[in-house]
Amino acid sequence: MIVYQTDEYGVFVGTTIADQDPKDASNKLMPAGSTDVEPPTTTDEELARWDGYSWTVESLPQPKPEGPAVAEDPDQDGRDLRNHLLNQHVDPRMSNQLWWASLSVALQAEIEQYRFDLLDVPQQSEFPYNITWPQEPSA
């Protein structure tokens, strides 16, 4: 017997066969996610979805346009980059006591100032659209 297979969302994906139950000749073994109710005819822009009781026809979801990603929150993007610099480039070094102790007092002061300047980035007058990033000291 031919049955109609759906995916995990109930969308029709094709046909398959329901096998005969070896223990009960009057019963067919339906594969999971299938039904014996034939789906409606659809166009190339539509899909058929089974809800457990009946079929519905829906328009295919439209893909998002391709192109450069547009930040939904440029303020958050600026903060995320600032946090990345702090978390990956500054704080691990400052917390490494042996490395920190090997630096000159002047270089320690430069790194501390760089950290303060990064923390102040969101207070810049043109943030987040025009950010002046502080120069990282070479350590």
Q: Which stretches of 5+ consecutive residues score pLDDT under 50?
A: none
Radius of gyration: 31 Å
- In terms of structural class, how would the helical and strand content be classed? alpha+beta
Oligomeric status = single chain
What is the tally of helical segments?
A: 3
Helical proportion, percent range: 25-40%
The residue-averaged pLDDT reads 88
Describe the global form: elongated
How would you spell out the order of helices and strands? EEEEEEEHHH
Main sheet characteristics: 3 strands, antiparallel
* Strand residue content: 15-25%
How far apart the termini lie comes to: 74 Å
Number of strands: 7
Q: Number of domains in the coordinates?
A: 2
Strand order of the largest sheet: 2-1-5
What key phrases describe this protein's structure?
2 domains, 139 residues, 3 helices, single chain, 3-stranded antiparallel beta sheet, elongated, alpha+beta, two-stranded antiparallel sheet
Description:
By secondary structure, the chain is of the alpha+beta class. The protein folds into 2 domains: 2-59, no CATH class; 74-123. 29% of the residues lie in helices and 23% in strands. The chain contains 3 helices and 7 strands; from the N terminus they run βββββββααα. Strands 2-1-5 form a 3-stranded antiparallel β-sheet, with no helix packed on it. It has a two-stranded antiparallel sheet with strand order 3-4. A hairpin with a 2-residue loop joins strand 3 and strand 4 (24-29). Helix 1 packs antiparallel against helix 3. The longest helix has 21 residues, at 74-94. The relative contact order is 0.11. The model has no long low-confidence stretch (mean pLDDT 88).
